[in-house]
Specification:
Largest sheet: 4 strands, mixed
Number of domains: 3
Number of helices: 14
Structural class: alpha+beta
Strand order of the largest sheet: 2-1-4-3
Length: 352
């Protein structure tokens, strides 16, 4: 399912491509690289910046990357994620290695329940997804998060999403039950997305936090994205989302775990809660430094923000530094500081 999600991202974000055209590699970036010789891996991988590959060869490309890295390191990478797109419309390939900065993430046990979403829920979700894909093909990708759920700037998509909200608001207990208990991964993935369109409540947030540790990375991705939209919508919503529950995911071997948890945590750290910043320093500093050095500014910015806040840099100064891409001075200030986070007591508040 992970590869299908990434394929959809590639296809949706590049409407100008036809079957005869190719994606261009903008960068190959790594994480989990602590203690690993990156130069050897770069020499072995099949594609580099500027190389091209066809849209229908993505699975083959991923397999070639895995084979090359296993040949060099003796182990397959934890993830190979082609992600579209950088500011020039090129693909960034993220490779998760199994170095010292990849932790063992503990996920929920696989649910065993028989709950399923009804046909009406699946149809209304499908309608909204198709409208969103069409909007992206037209080049409309912005959204309004102020209501606590994502509303596209495209009028047709917005109408479908508002219908989605109305449905979920009437059936939220059923959606939560599917998300928490269903053994059907596809239904849990859709339920996580649907629950993000519910009226905000502590039960909704608790269910989404629980789903952020689902055994399936697609469920986790959708749940954390929904939490990020909620956190952006109001400081009150952000205040009741336990950031400590997401810190461990910054060390995950999956790119979507790192990307989505970093996005959410960059919102939650805006208030500079000392406990959360200590947890980040204690548990995820190396991973944040790796992510802050990624080539794509859209993907590295969240980690850069968190590092600046951990370092105690005043927000206005931090924003100015990042605008000028002064990332290394931030990293240097952290690596030379005394570590005051060792006594952090990181606790996940899942049940609100």
């Amino acid at each position: 399912m992970k590869l299908l999600i990434l394929v959809a991202m590639l296809t949706a974000a590049a409407p100008a491509f036809s079957q005869n055209e190719s994606f261009t590699v903008g960068a190959v970036d790594f994480y989990g690289s602590n203690g690993v010789n990156i130069n050897l891996i770069r020499a072995a991988i099949p594609l580099r910046e500027g190389d091209q590959f066809s849209p229908d060869s993505k699975e083959i490309v991923v397999a070639r990357f895995k084979k090359a890295i296993k040949r060099v390191t003796g182990r397959e990478p934890s993830d190979v994620a082609p992600v579209c797109c950088d500011e020039r419309g090129r693909v960034v390939i993220y490779i998760g290695l199994r170095g010292g900065s990849v932790g063992r993430t503990i996920y929920n046990l696989s649910p065993r329940g028989s709950a399923r979403l009804p046909r009406a829920a699946l149809q209304i979700h499908r309608d909204a997804e198709e409208a969103l894909l069409n909007a992206m093909k037209k080049g409309v990708s912005g959204e309004d998060d102020s209501h606590g759920y994502a509303l596209s700037l495209d009028p047709e998509t917005r109408t479908k999403q508002l219908a989605l909200h109305a449905y979920v608001a009437r059936h939220s207990p059923m959606v939560m039950r599917v998300l928490v208990s269903s053994r059907d991964v596809g239904h849990r993935q859709i339920a996580a997305e649907l629950l993000g369109y519910d009226d905000r409540s502590t039960k909704q947030i608790a269910a989404l936090i629980h789903a952020s540790r689902d055994v399936d990375d697609g469920v986790r991705n959708n749940a954390i994205r929904a939490l990020a939209v909620l956190a952006r919508s109001s400081s009150e919503a952000a205040a009741i989302i336990s950031g400590e529950c997401l810190v461990e995911l910054l060390n995950s071997g999956f790119w979507t775990d790192r990307n989505k948890s970093a996005e959410l945590l960059s919102i939650l750290t805006a208030q500079r809660d000392p406990q959360l910043l200590k947890c980040l320093r204690k548990q995820a500093l190396t991973s944040l430094i790796e992510m802050a050095r990624w080539s794509n500014r859209g993907h590295s910015h969240s980690a850069q923000l968190m590092l600046g806040r951990i370092a105690g840099i005043e927000e206005k100064t931090l924003i100015s530094m990042l605008a000028k891409q002064e990332v290394e001075p931030i990293i240097n200030s952290l690596t030379t500081q005394k570590n005051n986070g060792a006594s952090a007591n990181c606790r996940c508040r899942e049940n609100l």
